[in-house]
Amino acid sequence: MILLSFSAQAQSTDVESIEFKSLSRVYFEHVTITADSLIFRLKENHKNEEVINKRAISKKEWKSILKDINSLSLESIPNLESPTMKRSFDGARHSSLKIITTDTSYEHLFDDENPHKMLIPLLECIKRMTK
After folding, report:
1. For a tag site, which of 15, 59, 109, 118 has the least CB within 10 Å?
2. What secondary structure does DSSP assign to 69-118, as a single string?
3. Which 8-state DSSP code applies to residue 35?
4. DSSP label at 1?
C-alpha cells in the first residue's frame, strides 16, 4: 500500500502540462494547463479573430486535475480505444488529450469531446477550468 501511494505521488509530480486540442476545417481549440497557468485559444473560421485567454490557476485547481490523472495508468493512454471514429471521414472534430511528463508524453486521439470513458473525468475538469 505504501508503494502504491508513493507511485501515485511520483506520477503526479512528474506531470508538467496537460493539453486538449480539438480541430476541424472551421474550428480550432487548444488548451494548455501547467501547475501555474491555463492558456485557452479558440479560432472559428467564420470569425476573423482568434480568442486567447491566459490566467493563473490555483493550487486547488492543479490538485484537482492531478487527482484525475492519478486515477489513470499513463502508459495505457495511447492504447485506449476511441469510442467513435467519425473523424476518419470528416464527421467530427479531431481531438486529443496529451499529458506531458518530465520524461515523455501520453496522447489519446478521439472525436469531438468524446474520449475513452477513462478520460472523461479529466476532460470534464479541463472544460470546467476553461469556462
Report:
1. 59
2. HHTS-GGGGGGPPPS--GGGGTSS-EEEEEEEESS-EEEEEEETTB--GG
3. S
4. -
For the chain, the average pLDDT equals 86
Query: Hey, which residues does 54 pair with through a beta bridge?
Result: 39
Element (H, E) at 66: helix 59-70
CA–chain centroid gap for 106, Å, is 10
- Return d(Cα 119, Cα 131) in angstroms, integer: 19
Q: In what order do the strands lie in the sheet with 27-34?
A: 50-56, 37-44, 27-34, 15-23, 94-101, 105-111
Please give the distance of CA 39 from its chain centroid, rounded to a whole number: 12
The CA angle 11-13-15, to the nearest 5 degrees, is 75
Q: What is the per-residue pLDDT across 25-60, written as a single tens digit (0 to 9) for each?
A: 888 999 999 999 999 999 988 777 889 999 999 999
- Position 131: which residue type? K
C-alpha cell at 36: 501555474
Alpha-carbon gap, residue 42 to 60, rounded angstroms: 25
pLDDT recorded at residue 93: 85
* DSSP bridge pairs for 114: 111
